[in-house]
Amino acid sequence: MSPPADSPPTIAELPEFFEYLGMSIERATAEEAIVRMQVPKQLLSPHGPVHGGAISALIDTAIGIAVVCRLEPGDRTATHELNINYISFAAKPVVIATARVLRLSRTVAHTEAEARSEDGTLVAKALGTFGVFRRA
Fold it and tell me: Nearest CA to 65 among 101, 94, 39?
């Protein structure tokens, strides 16, 4: 089975919080998904850096988009496990996540992602296992 055409999920398929969290898709193909987050000030920690939960949401969403780009229309995915290692603070409110599917089987996708500050500083690395739900 070949992957569908390289097209990002439509707005109707994106989570409702996508826009609320300041996320936008920069790239979504069968090879990778790149999602940018202009972090709202409410998601900054009391000392200034971006809250880790916001970075986690960004990575989780980017991986979900990467998996969807490898599925057939109508198939779905959901996070089973997400392991994130935080490397450094995101001092400025723009964080960019790049996600890739390492292996896709009928029911599981093994994935990796990283989040970087706009200046390229590595903020976090992640490995994820996502369930795949085929419509047929």
Answer: 101
Q: Please give the model's pTM, rounded to 2 decimal places.
A: 0.89
Q: How far apart are CA 133 and CA 129, in angstroms?
A: 13
Q: With b meaning 16 or more CB within 10 Å and e meaning fewer, what string describes 2-12?
A: eeeeeebbeee
Task: Examine residue 27 and state whether it is found in any structural domain, yes or no.
Answer: yes
Total domains, the chain: 1
Domain with 89, as residue range(s), is 11-133
The helix/strand/coil state of 52 is: helix
CA–CA gap between residue 126 and residue 112 (Å, rounded): 6
Is the pLDDT at 111 greater than 50? The verdict is: yes
Average pLDDT of the segment spanning 47-74:
93
Is 4 inside a domain boundary? Answer: no
CA dihedral over 23, 87, 30, 75, signed as positive or negative: negative
Dihedral of CA atoms 118, 55, 27, 135 in degrees, nearest 10, equals 180
